[in-house]
Structure formats: structure tokens, C-alpha cells
Amino acid sequence: MARSVPPLPVVWPAAAAAVSAAMLATAHTFQHFGFEPCALCLRQREVYWVALVIGLAGAAALRGNRRRLLFLALGALFTAGLIVAVFQSGAEWKFWPGPATCATSGAGVTADSLTALLGGATVRPPACDEASWRMLGLSMAGWNALVSAGLAVISFGLAFGRGRRA
Asked: Are 82 and 152 spatial neighbours (Cβ–Cβ below 8 Å)?
């Protein structure tokens, strides 16, 4: 006898957590191979860390009408990630300037402080306005924007949808 597939509202919190974990794993894999994250890259990761925790907690604990709040929270998180990713993509394409922290990858760490720390060696931290990698014309931030947009649409669709509820 074939098992029926649970409706999307039932599996979405766990699925959102799984996609968040996959995005974090991808980011850390790129970093392992020498693609150091900039300040905006780290901001985008924060969204996925929070979504991972909320998705796992929601999958384990929330049922019924409280799921709507979970879907709204996930939608808001993924929208925040989308905004940061679009901002970074625009800075990479020179549509607008990046933030003042654009040349740093850590709190309080600047190119000057790293140069002083290394005894005069020239160090250039990753910049938010330069794409270090592109595939099919999109940078990592561009791909993140697409993934974040899809996750936000699904989350808000479930929150406001009139379809099958679990």
C-alpha cells in the first residue's frame, strides 16, 4: 500500500530548516575553499541560522493555528535575507554603493588593523561590492536572493493560503 505524502503545511518547517542547513553548508564549503565572507555574506548567514532553529523548533512543537505564526516568522526571516542579498547584488553590479563595513568581514576588523597586526603586510579583506564567484551570471548573493525569495513566497503562501491545513 502506498503511503500518502503529508501536506506541505506539515512538512514545511522541517523543509525550511533543511534548506537553511543546506545553504549554510554551501556557504561554509565555499569558505573552506578560500572564498572568505564579507560583512553582508555573514548577515545573510544569520538569517539561515535563525530559520534553521525556528524551523526545527516549529517542526517539533507547533500544531494547528500556531503554525500560521511560524509561517509568518519564516516568511519575514527569508524576506530579510532577500533584502540583504539584493542589496549586496546591487552593490556588486555597482547599482549603489555598499555599506561602510563593505571592506570588513568581522566586527571592528579593518584593513588597517589587519595590516598593523601582521607587521605591515598588506591585507585586503573581502569586499561586499565585488563578486568573487559567478554562475550563469549570478553571484552567490544573487543565488541567495533567488532561494530566499522562493522560501519567503512558500512561507507567506502557507500563512495566508486557504488550501489544505494540517
From this structure: yes
Give the end-to-end CA distance of the chain in Å, rounded to a whole number.
Answer: 22
Identify any residues that bridge with 138 across adjacent strands, giving them in sequence order: 135
Residue type, 40: L
Q: What single-letter amino acid sits at 9?
A: P
Quote the domain boundaries for residue 68.
10-98+129-160
- Is 110 domain-assigned? no
Query: What's the rounded Cα separation, in Å, for the pair 153 and 151?
Result: 6
Q: Tell me whether residue 32 is in a domain.
A: yes
Q: Are 145 and 82 in contact (CB under 8 A)?
A: yes
Report the distance separating Cα 72 and Cα 165, nearest Å: 15
Q: Is the confidence at residue 96, as pLDDT, over 80?
A: yes
Q: List the CATH number of the domain containing 29.
A: 1.20.1550.10
How many helices and strands in the chain, by DSSP H and E? 5, 2
Averaged pLDDT score across all residues of the chain: 79
> How many domains is the chain partitioned into structurally?
1
Inter-CA distances, 143 with 9, 24, 139, 157, Å: 25, 13, 6, 21
Q: Mind listing the pLDDT tens digit for each residue in 119-155?
A: 555 445 677 677 777 778 888 888 889 999 999 999 9
